[in-house]
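Slide 14.
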Amino acid sequence: MLKPAFIDLSHHNTIPASLQATADAGIVGVIHKCTEGTGFVDSKSDARFYLTRDAGMMWGLYHFVRPGSMVEQVNHFLRAAAEISDEETMLVLDWEDAGVSLDDAVEFLQLVEERTGRAPVLYSGHVLKEALAGSPDPRISQYRLWLCQYASEPVMPPGYEDGCWAWQYTDKGEVPGVTPPTDLNAYDGTADELIAEWSGGAAVEPAPPSGITITVIVPPGVNVDIVTSKD
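Slide 15: predicted structure.
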């Protein structure tokens, strides 16, 4: 039996009290709906941000994309996310609308990465498979795939033959702390590995040396003036 690693929620879900029981059951994180299209903001996302952090779990936000301007939707998503996110927050594109093209999805993902410096996750299933039409597209397969497929075994889309990043395997699950039914998601790795790669942020490069050391050998009786600069 699959063991869920994280859950995803929206305003449709009910949390009677807190998420502490959810965390105690081994759930590493929560990914919550943030926005949809260019106008909708999930009214419960702000409260769930604090509940998730209070329980010591990782936090993520997703945008349900609709046909239209990807620039406007990215702007809307990141504006709403700014108040309920931090440097550890995962950002997700939820691509379920077949009216959104492959080019649109790629544009959204690339814009989010350019604006935030972290690689977002792509959530999709049959819409992605139909859009790829049997051929991989390296523009999109460079992003982690959170596959939505309710089946006994996942079937990978072209470009993800090595497997998906995570698999949403049911929308009828149960976890402590959340009124069922709940979406459940499996991850092929340890909790520590999931936490380490959660945000999609690049590893921080070590800072360059603040200066260099120069050794000057001066013959006896010779005066030398040394001028330093931080350019």
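Speaker note: Strands lie at 6-9, 29-36, 40-41, 58-64, 90-94, 121-124, 144-148, 166-173, 182-187.
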